[in-house]
């Protein structure tokens, strides 16, 4: 089934929300707390990570609720609308800059981030469930998600270039006022994106039948656990999420303390995201020629290789760092596209073999773990900073960081995520779901290639 171009565009525009909510807090929230609210680095890392534990509860619940929803708007869109009505307000409050510092400021940010994560789940979980239900064609899902990735690239430009530019518009390094402005601006972008996706998918085709009485949430988790391709893909995705989370958290520190230019955060992100806008057709062709697993291996090697090579930045300078980030971006583009295309394949195969709508359960668990693991990237980088002796501050009391802290920033941006990505490359060899399985066999292959009947 070919998805109409208008629906592809309508679906893709929702990625302005999913990309910005994932990237902006990951990029700026830790730095905002340590350098403007005087929150210790270890506590700031905990604050970024802690609300994500809630995602492990709420995301699967939203997924299951959307699986069981029967309405004239379809099963997914009512929940997307609910997210559109709540997330922008919570996001603007996240960077509101209350007159608090230290632990009280950390508590405020943690509570608001928890509310924002809940609102985000209402939109994200049903949104990510839709591609597996829009078409039953193996390669059409990749083509559909290509559009989504283009919008992710554009959205990440806003996150990584425009958001830091707004922050720095009132002085190098930003001010509390500029963070407030950035929060409101990004909230408006999210609102427009979510409403665009809601209206743009009104005529989206749907495959599969509703399953409003398909058992309890826990019984559905048992089905998920019994699906080897899904579990192996989830483990692979977790390593990739963690590496990206570490790099996002490290980026403003890398720009400020290694390159000596806080505004370089924007240009580094431009180098990283440019390939997403340029290389999507290439990755679609590579996935058809070498299978999705082969293309994923190549993407992971480029991602990890560029990240590891960036360790030489102090010796070779800022231009070299930007070139390596461009290489990373080429690999990152492929990883993102293929990861979600593989996920849609797994969900579609489950629906074909069982006749039940369970996309919400699969994507709910996926997004919950994605969110939690990504937030542990900030926690991991916060721990690296603490081990390096990084000193927290506020604008009224600037400090000079010790050399050990600068080294920690460098390794946190390069060596640590590179090691994690190379682990993901090794894990990719174990993924066995191919076009032959999806197109010709309604049974589920195990990670080792063994075909097993679908769980009842």
TrEMBL record:
The keyword Membrane applies. InterPro entries: MFS_2 (IPR039672), MFS_trans_sf (IPR036259). Keywords: Membrane, Transmembrane, Transmembrane helix. The chain crosses the membrane at residues 12-33, 39-58, 79-99, 105-123, 144-167, 179-199, 230-255, 267-284, 296-317, 323-349, 361-385, 405-429. Pfam families: MFS_2 (PF13347). This is MFS transporter. The lineage of its organism: Bacteria, Bacillati, Actinomycetota, Actinomycetes, Streptosporangiales.
